[in-house]
Amino acid sequence: MGIFKAYDIRGRYPDELDEEKAFRIGFSFVRFLRAEKIVVGRDMRLSSPALSRALTDGARTAGAQVTDIGMVTSPLLYYAVIETGSPGGAMVTASHLPGDMNGFKLCRELAIPLSRDHGLAEIEEMAGGAAVNTGRAAARGGYKTADLLESYIDRLSGFVRKPAPLRMVIDSGNGTAGPEISRLLERFPVWQAVCMHMEPDGSFPHHVANPLLPENTRDLSEKVRAERADIGIAFDGDADRCGFIDETGRKVNEDLVTALIAEVYLAREPGAKIIYDLRSSRAVAEAIVKMGGKPVRTRVGHSFIKEKMRQEGAVFAGELSGHYYYRDTGYTDNSLFTMIQMLNLLATGGPALSERMEALRRYSSTGEINLRSGRQGDVFAALEKAYGRYERDYLDGLTVSAGRWWFNLRASNTEPVVRLNLEASDPELMEEKKREVIGLIVQADPDAAAADSG
Fold first, then answer.
1. Domains of the chain with CATH codes
2. Euclidean distance between the first and final Cα of the chain, in Å?
3. Which residues are paired to 42 by β-bridges?
4. Catalytic one among 95, 172, 221, 281?
5. pLDDT digit string (tens) for 220-249?
6. For residue range 80-114, what is the model confidence (pLDDT) as tens digits?
7. What is the pTM (predicted TM-score) of this model?
8. Annotated catalytic residue 95
9. DSSP 8-state secondary structure symbol assigned to residue 137
């Protein structure tokens, strides 16, 4: 279908993804799982109600009973799947993407995600087959609605340790986090919160709900300074990831948040395993070791990280993309839970958030640079040859470690793009090596050019 990606399904509505495809996906999802029941949730996008109905019709036609939990965040959908013991769940969302996009995140029991390696490829093949059409005559499964918001907020509230009178500014980005944040804030009046763009609105009247893009947190930064807040918090559309602003209005590096939250967990569970993705700053693993934890490096992608957490029994995992995962939430990513952990950290007193960050910003990083390339094999071969004398590994793409600097280069799973992350001991060396590595990439593929991060 072209809309099935490495970890989810997404496309432009209605050109790439419409109700007919949603029906087929719902039918095939249930048949693949052999599920007698599933949970379905949706975000606030204008196309989400219609796509949710179509997916539900497909699932019921395949014989499953559908529990519709309405407009929710992805973390609440995961909670519902785990709490109800459902064999699977489907979230209608395009996460952080613009309003004309939509899609599905699919999971099986215990909210274990489906990916191209584990289920999505089979569902794609089934959804494109003729058997879906003949299935329309099959007996329909049941349908009911459920509201799990209060029990979900009850669960999250139990992880607030010692609430302190912290001042915060929260930008929900007109995504689905708004109602859940409001309920959480009602439980803790000691928190002093100034809220922005809390009403769910799929037209995104203020900005796209993607906290990783600097232009989307500019107003939040200004508001944090104006309100003299301790922290600013921004959420994406379906609230499975978030970003932070320190009290000076400066953006907090997403990978370094992993080190901050690790402090909260390691204070309670010394020696625990903390997982970080291989794009993260070296400062993350160094901080975990210094605090007595055991850092575990893993490849990029939520399905890999969740699987690794289960294998290792890790208490927490952080990703450069702003996804943070917890054993306490069933090994799922949860932005409201992340907000709680950051507030737990600040409630202990000590340095302000900006001071904590400065202690971790020991290296200079390029951030993720996306380069469009149709000759990826040539690019990787050129870098292998140029840096053959250095330590290398292939956990995810090519990682070269050269003492005072290192880089990782990965190929996109869904488009002709390579993604470069490079870090060095100082800004000058970082800029020098960035030019050097990109120069080698362009030399191997003269048509290589900057690409959108997507």
1. 9-148 (3.40.120.10), 167-245 (3.40.120.10), 254-348 (3.40.120.10), 364-450 (3.30.310.50)
2. 19
3. 71, 92
4. 95
5. 999 999 999 999 999 999 999 999 999 999
6. 999 999 999 999 999 999 999 999 999 999 999 99
7. 0.94
8. yes
9. G
